[in-house]
Amino acid sequence: MKKAIFYMVISAIAFTLLNVTVKSLGQFSVYQIVFFRALGSLFFTLPFLLKNKISIYGNKKTLLVLRSIFGLSSMLLFFMSLRYITMGTAVSVRYIAPIFASIFAVFLLREKIKPIQWFFLALAFSGVLVLKGFGEDLQIEGIVFSFISAVFAGLVYITIRKIGDKDHPVVVVNYFMLISTVIGGLLSINYWKTPIGYEWLVLMSLGVFGYFAQLYMTKAMQIGETNQITPFKYLEVVFTTIVGLLWFNETYSFYILLGMLIIILGLTLNLIFKKSQ
Fold first, then answer.
1. What's the pLDDT tens digit per position in 255-272?
2. How is residue 113 annotated by DSSP?
């Protein structure tokens, strides 16, 4: 259990470093950032598949492509949101993705959600309303981008559920990174800015942080109880907020912090209840 918590903390730190790096690359277009984020991860996924003689084509090709498009849309919109609002706020709003995943699951997977779960999800959503309703310094563009990013993330969860165990997890990630590299590269052509010196290292580090964030989160889930481990994932919000305060001089009003807390509370309660059934 201690090892699982340790892995989840490492994952949260890696996600935080990814967020911070994206925030610091304001001189580059989000398309170019997506390109390097995906390209960097391909250096890990492709060799793994080739070394273990796993087909890169997968079995559920249509679903794999859909998952990649949904994931790319979510990532692109989240990176865009960081241009308008504080990192902690953007991360918190993106975390309402399980709300949309639950709604999609009712209609697409015919799953049933108990009334108490709807209450917990509504509680989490109310946190977003507190953020925007009382966080007067928040730009609406950032909230909208992060919100829609969460919608696409919800679609990612559903698509992965549909894929199930028909494809290796690294195949799923490799599809996502490959398609994101191609589309991100094409979209960035008209906005391309050639990196200089250390900027190459910073841009390539995006893929490293992203890969290890996913890797250690997966490791934690594999060896620990989900309802006990997953709440530690929200440390990303805490770490990102702290770094934003110290490094970028971001400011968080009482109501913004309250909204973030309500979002995390609602999602955590829903997770604990779901796993107890």
1. 888 999 999 999 888 888
2. -
Kindly give the residue spans of alpha helices, DSSP state H, lying in the chain: 2-24, 30-51, 61-81, 87-94, 97-108, 115-134, 140-163, 169-187, 198-223, 226-229, 235-247, 254-276
Place of tokens 């918190």: 92
Find, among 250, 259, 221, the residue nearest to 1 by Cα.
221
C-alpha–C-alpha distance, residues 250 and 139, integer Å:
14
Please check whether residue 57 lies inside any domain of the structure.
yes
Q: How far apart are CA 194 and CA 191, in angstroms?
A: 10
The parent domain of residue 153 ranges over 2-20+30-276
- Asked if 156 and 71 count as a contact pair (C-beta separation under 8 A), the reply is yes
Query: Looking at the 3D structure of the chain, how many domains does it have?
Result: 1
**CA-CA distance, 179 to 122, in Å (whole number)?**
34
**pLDDT at site 66:** 95
In a domain, 25, yes or no: no
